[in-house]
């Protein structure tokens, strides 16, 4: 079965480094899934194109059709990639507003790869002290690695110690593994007592143990 990844990008310019990072995270995740024998498709949600609809939803409480379709793509995905520019040491208002109009329980258990970008690496901690708590509140499951890209990561003076490409690959691998784990389903018969006691055990064994056998 083909998996589906939703990519939410909150860049304001066109083209934007936010979208560029999102595209690279998505491509790497698809490649990692393919290595595990899992095919995947990607839905890109550009929040810049939905800004008026998001505002109208916040004011009126109803999602216009385009926003409703984007929300459906996000909440029904098998995995989520989110990328925001950093404004005032945190996520952008547009990014936060989009997740404000989604039902707080709709992302429960959703694997999420977080990305962010800013002009300087000094803002890299925003992933852990601002963005990750948002998805913890939404009961999603962000992967351990967040991918931050400063302006220098795209130029000749990029980080030679931990290059952006290696960070992207690591985050994508963790998201792919998380999506793959969601494919593993263990069917348990609720009327089979042995299923709850482990292989080779039964209520007879349990009762025998309690009786001192």
Bin the strand percentage: 15-25%
Run of helices and strands: EHEHHEEHEHEEHH
Query: In the CATH hierarchy, what is the class of the largest domain?
Result: Alpha Beta
Summed over residues and divided by their number, the pLDDT gives a mean of 86
Main beta sheet strand tally, sense and closure: 7 strands, mixed
Question: How far from one another are the termini?
Answer: 48 Å
Instruction: Report the C-alpha radius of gyration, rounded.
Output: 21 Å
CATH fold topology of the largest domain: Rossmann fold
How many discrete domains?
2
Q: What is the tally of helical segments?
A: 7
Name the structural class: alpha/beta
CATH superfamily of the largest domain: Flavodoxin domain
Helix content: 40-55%
- Total DSSP E strands: 7
Task: Report what the structure shows.
The chain is an alpha/beta fold and 213 residues long. It folds into two domains: 180 residues, Flavodoxin domain (Rossmann fold), CATH 3.40.50; 26 residues, no CATH class. Helices cover 41% and strands 18% of the residues. Helix 1 links the parallel strand 1 and strand 2. Helix 1 packs across helix 6 and helix 2 crosses helix 4. The C terminus is likely disordered.
Summarize the structure.
Helices cover 41% and strands 18% of the residues. With 213 residues, the chain is α/β, with parallel strands linked by helices.
């Amino acid at each position: 079965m083909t998996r589906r990844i939703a990519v939410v990008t909150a860049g304001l310019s066109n083209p934007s480094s936010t979208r560029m990072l999102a595209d690279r995270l998505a491509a790497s995740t698809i490649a990692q899934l393919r290595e595990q024998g899992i095919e995947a498709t990607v839905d890109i949600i550009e929040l810049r194109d939905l800004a008026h609809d998001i505002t109208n939803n916040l004011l009126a409480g109803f999602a216009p059709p385009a926003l409703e379709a984007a929300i459906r793509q996000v909440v029904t995905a098998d995995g989520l990639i989110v990328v925001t520019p950093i404004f005032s040491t945190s996520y952008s208002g547009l990014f936060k507003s989009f997740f404000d109009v989604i039902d707080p329980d709709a992302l429960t258990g959703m694997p999420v790869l977080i990305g962010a970008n800013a002009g300087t690496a000094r803002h890299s901690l925003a992933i852990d002290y601002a963005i990750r708590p948002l998805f913890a509140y939404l009961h999603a499951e962000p992967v351990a690695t967040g991918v931050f890209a400063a302006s220098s990561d795209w130029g000749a003076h990029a980080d030679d110690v931990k290059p952006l490409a290696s960070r992207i690959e690591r985050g994508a691998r963790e998201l792919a593994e998380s999506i793959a784990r969601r494919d593993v389903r263990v069917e348990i018969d609720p009327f089979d007592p042995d299923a709850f006691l482990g292989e080779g055990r039964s209520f007879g064994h349990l009762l025998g143990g309690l009786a001192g056998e």
